[in-house]
Design brief:
Blueprint: H1 5-9, H2 20-37, H3 50-55, H4 75-78
């Protein structure tokens, strides 16, 4: 089960969305184990550590920001110079 005892006691049927990536990885591990156990896998040699194998290949949604870096400038550098006569 992908639910904790506390979540089951709350009446949940599905794991919290915050855990979706970990739940998906656990499902992928079980599917991979089943495929190799039943000679249905297409990638050989069989990975010794299937969890590590899957975690190294999952799509990551983290991106570098496309926004420019913003820096705080001192007040004296932000205003035009004053011309005195």
């Amino acid at each position: 089960s992908q639910l904790t005892d506390k979540e089951l006691a709350q009446g949940r049927l599905y794991p919290p969305l915050a855990n979706i990536q970990e739940v998906s990885i656990n499902i992928a591990i079980k599917v991979t184990e089943y495929l190799y156990a039943n000679k249905m896998a297409f990638r050989y040699p069989e990975p010794e550590d299937k969890a590590k194998y899957i975690r190294e290949r999952i799509w990551r949604s983290e991106y570098d920001s496309l926004l420019p870096d913003v820096y705080e400038w001192p007040e004296s550098a932000s205003s035009p110079p004053q011309i005195t006569e």
